[in-house]
């Protein structure tokens, strides 16, 4: 890699790392996982910088790498976990009425399958269009719509009595 290309990558990494980390944190639900995912994404971008730097939208390209890396890693870890511990009970958070909504939502997001979690985060947190999410995850738009709808129903059911919005009283 030429010095100019290295400098361009380093500049992008400095400015783009925070944006990537935000999405990674929402996908992973924890600091360590988000840091690992962000670093893996940046390493992949560095490895393929010549191609990445020619992308029309470098941030979108980087986010695609991040999401695809997340989904691939989760598939591997889920397969490993299922192979080792098929009958382990899954913890279900039961937040108190005064629980921090952010912590509650992160815990509930973590219950979603990785691909569905990625769809919800990209669609509703990153505010991407259905078409863009479908492109990022290499699936149909109808899959994004149905998975997001099912995931929202599941999240709302798990939220129970936790109040999402102020009643204005």
What does this protein look like?
The chain is mainly alpha-helical. It folds into two domains: 1-88, Rna Polymerase Sigma Factor, Chain: A; 91-162, Orthogonal Bundle (Arc Repressor Mutant, subunit A), CATH 1.10.10.10. 73% of the residues lie in helices and 0% in strands. The protein has helices at 3-28, 31-47, 49-52, 58-84, 101-111, 114-125, 130-137, 141-159. It is globular, with a radius of gyration of 18 Å. Residues 78-86, 88-99 and 165-169 have low confidence and may be disordered.
CATH architecture of the largest domain: Orthogonal Bundle
Q: What string, H for helix and E for strand, traces the elements in order?
A: HHHHHHHH
CATH topology of the largest domain: Rna Polymerase Sigma Factor, Chain: A
Into how many domains do the coordinates divide? 2
Q: Label the overall shape.
A: globular
What is the share of helical residues? over 70%
- Note poorly predicted spans: 78-86, 88-99, 165-169
- The share of residues in extended strands comes to under 5%
**What's the total number of strands?**
0
Give the helix/strand class: mainly alpha
């Amino acid at each position: 890699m030429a010095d100019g290309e290295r400098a361009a990558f380093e500049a992008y990494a400095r400015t783009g790392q925070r944006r990537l980390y935000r999405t990674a944190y929402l996908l992973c639900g924890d600091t360590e996982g988000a840091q690992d995912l962000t670093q893996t994404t940046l390493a992949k971008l560095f490895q393929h910088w010549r191609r990445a730097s020619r992308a029309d939208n470098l941030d979108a390209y980087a986010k695609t790498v991040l999401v695809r890396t997340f989904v691939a890693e989760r598939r591997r870890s889920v397969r490993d976990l299922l192979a080792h511990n098929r009958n382990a009970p899954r913890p279900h958070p039961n937040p108190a009425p005064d629980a921090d909504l952010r912590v509650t939502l992160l815990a509930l997001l973590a219950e979603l399958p990785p691909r569905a979690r990625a769809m919800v985060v990209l669609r509703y947190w990153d505010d991407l269009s259905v078409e863009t999410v479908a492109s990022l995850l290499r699936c149909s738009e109808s899959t994004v719509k149905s998975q997001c709808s099912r995931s929202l129903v599941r999240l709302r059911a798990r939220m129970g009595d936790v109040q999402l919005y102020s009643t204005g009283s």
